[in-house]
């Protein structure tokens, strides 16, 4: 097969959930739509240079993200999320006016991810000037392990809450609709 | 949202079958896997510079593709395919030793694609030095319209065949297994 087509298919197959067939289909589409393809390539190259916010670990173009810079946001409430997918989801729904902390992972001994890999020292530092920490984490073994670690780490010095019950057990937070999320926020309860 | 993430999501959504959710997931994966992401971007930029073979319209890095340059291939048999997906599929199965002609489309009055858009003059020219033309096209309105146009164009001067019956009506050629394809090739019949 043509070397550069083979290379493209090979690298696209690394994307999560993309097999040989889809990679071939996307590769041919890209070759047939070269303007869009060049735009995608350019946007990838720009996006990989995004940094993590020095305060909250949200993605940003500069050192500190727009949310942390926004003086209208309530800095005394920190919502801890696993990925920025959850942050983006919450932001698009406009139901939360505090700030965030993005963990970029959960403690998972099975996958070799431990507390030291999660930058929790920074969260501890941020928590010192806050009044409430909301743990917006998946209801899974890893989510609960991480929540418990954070609770122990903050050691009773701050109010720690979680989304209200009403979220089905084992449900992925990123699949919830606006109403469920809003209710879960309003009824949040202390750990 | 972060501008460069938004741009990346926006351009990835143009890929066929990719919606907002998948585009976000792929974008975040790319940002978190910057080495793979840079490789994908580089491979896209190389692949969009692929040319079409001057003889058969297969994709290639130079003017003429490896299949047309290969002296062991039977140049007197031309297999006409709609897309190079079919060509790649047939090549990976090693069941055909002739050459190809890639149409890059089918006649479709509904979509405004007419014979003049398919580079059929070049096929006519190639057919002059060939003994057999195999029409390996989908069994659809567009596939049959295109087949009939080619038959009329070549005007009885050459043997024109199609894959043997056994391919289910309306079935997409690219979904067939090796055995079905091989049988269809062996039992090909004249139009
Ligand atoms: Zn921030
Ligand atoms: Zn060729």
TrEMBL record, chains A, B:
Keywords assigned: DNA damage, DNA recombination, DNA repair, Metal-binding, Zinc, Zinc-finger
Residues spanning the membrane: none
SMART domains: TOPRIM (SM00493)
InterPro entries, alphabetized: DNA_Rcmb_RecR, Rcmb_RecR, Rcmb_RecR_Znf, TOPRIM_dom
A biological-process GO annotation: DNA recombination
Family: Belongs to the RecR family.
HAMAP family reported in the protein's UniProt record: RecR (MF_00017)
Name this protein carries in UniProt: Recombination protein RecR
Organism name: Desulfurella multipotens
């Amino acid at each position: 097969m043509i070397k550069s087509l083979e290379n493209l298919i090979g690298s696209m197959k690394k994307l999560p959930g993309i097999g040989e067939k889809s990679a071939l289909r996307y590769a041919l589409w890209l070759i047939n739509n070269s303007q869009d393809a060049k735009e995608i390539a350019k946007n990838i190259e720009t996006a990989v240079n995004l940094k993590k916010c020095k305060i909250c670990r949200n993605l940003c173009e500069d050192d500190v993200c727009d949310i942390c810079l926004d003086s209208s946001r309530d800095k005394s409430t920190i919502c801890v999320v696993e990925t920025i997918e959850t942050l983006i989801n919450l932001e698009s729904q406009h139901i939360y006016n505090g700030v965030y902390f993005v963990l970029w992972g959960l403690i998972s001994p099975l996958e070799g991810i431990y507390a030291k890999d999660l930058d929790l020292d920074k969260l501890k530092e941020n928590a010192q000037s806050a009044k409430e920490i909301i743990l917006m984490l998946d209801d899974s073994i890893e989510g609960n392990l991480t929540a418990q670690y954070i609770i122990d780490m903050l050691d009773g010095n701050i109010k720690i809450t979680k989304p209200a019950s009403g979220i089905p057990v084992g449900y992925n937070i990123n699949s919830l609709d606006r109403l469920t999320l809003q209710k879960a926020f309003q009824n949040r309860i202390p750990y």
